[in-house]
Amino acid sequence: SDESVVAGVLLKLNFVVTDVTGGMCTPLEGARVDVWHADAEGVYSGVDGAEDLMFLRGYQLTDEDGRATFLTVYPGWYPGRACPSAV
Q1: I want to staple 33 with a disulfide (CB 3.0 to 4.6 A). Which of 52, 55, 68, 84 is the partner?
Q2: Residue 54 — very low, low, confident or very high, per pLDDT cuts 50/70/90?
Q3: Could you tell me which residues come within 8 angstroms of residue 73 by beta carbon, excluding any fewer than 6 positions away?
Q4: pLDDT at 69
Q5: Residue 3 — very low, low, confident or very high, per pLDDT cuts 50/70/90?
């Protein structure tokens, strides 16, 4: 919301939305796809101390192929987020 830039690893998210009515997978044009995720410290915009900010969130409508693509930043490993341990 303030056009600031923070360090991070770019992440490209590709979504394909289909209508499966009748057993067919037909691309669904005009579907709204929302993305909202935390930053590297676990902070989500719009809530809990960041109410006046808007970052790492947005939406797109799918194209004629049912696709929506977002370029965002990988949120990292903040406290409370766990990854599977190697055995």
Answers
A1: 68
A2: confident
A3: 6, 8, 9, 10, 11, 39, 56
A4: 96
A5: confident
Distances in Å between the alpha carbon of 58 and those of 6, 22, 23, 85? 17, 31, 31, 32
C-alpha angle 39/68/63, rounded to 5°?
Answer: 155
* pTM score of the predicted model: 0.74
Return d(Cα 10, Cα 87) in angstroms, integer.
29
Element (H, E) at 15: strand 10-16
Q: Which residue has the higher pLDDT, 69 or 46?
A: 69
SS3 59: strand
Residue 62, judged by CB atoms within 10 A of its CB (0-12, 13-18, 19+), counts as buried
Tokens of 55: 């970052």
